[in-house]
Design a protein that fits this description.
The protein is about 40% helix and about 15% strand. The protein is α/β, with parallel strands linked by helices and about 190 residues long.
């Protein structure tokens, strides 16, 4: 009996590319991240974000109730960590959001006078845009201003400032950071 020994041929494993690598020449691949990822306490999710994505959006920390909790004070701590994380991993940083009727700073809704409300809104937008100028690549300037049928939502911004709040918010942001890409963000607009 003749026995032969030979190595079993190794099967080649196809290279597994990340989402960001697969589409790097086409578009950004983005993800909304929460505070646990931003402060790096959820290392499993952070590793997925670093591997698969090249664009990040803050889930809630840049919404006015979190970042501007009192009229004369901002809380930039988590938002600054969010930006630092994006910079550390060379990601496109998308700010969310400057104007939104939901998760609104409580102090803002207590303003009765329309002119005072408009002035406070303008200051909020400009202060945020200034703080993140050159760091945030793009902004959701206005979020969910429309109803599902396409009509304007009867939000506090519409009630106090009229339809002009929409173009005004974009104008204010562009005045402060002309290099940032500016977006209107919505969802559920089709049947």
């Amino acid at each position: 009996i003749i026995l032969g020994c030979s190595e079993t041929p190794k099967k080649s494993t196809p290279e597994v590319r990340s989402l960001q690598d697969a589409f790097s020449k086409d578009f950004y691949v983005g993800v909304a991240i929460n505070g646990r990822i931003i402060d790096q306490t959820d290392s499993l999710s952070l590793n997925v974000v670093k591997k698969e994505f090249n664009s990040i959006t803050a889930e809630n920390i840049m919404k006015s109730m979190n970042i501007h909790p009192k009229r004369d004070s901002f809380n930039f701590e988590m938002a600054d960590k969010f930006v630092s994380l994006g910079e550390e991993y060379d990601m496109f940083i998308h700010g969310h959001t400057l104007i939104w009727h939901s998760q609104l700073s409580p102090w803002l809704s207590t303003i009765e006078d329309s002119l005072e409300f408009a002035t406070a809104t303008k200051k909020h937008v400009k202060d945020l845009a200034q703080h993140f100028r050159g760091k945030v690549d793009s902004w959701d300037v206005v979020n969910e201003a429309l109803n599902e049928d396409g009509t304007l939502r009867n939000s506090i911004f519409l009630k106090k400032m009229g339809e002009e709040y929409l173009p005004s918010a974009f104008k204010w942001t562009a005045e402060v950071d002309p290099n940032a890409d500016l977006y209107y963000n919505d969802y559920n607009m089709t049947n």
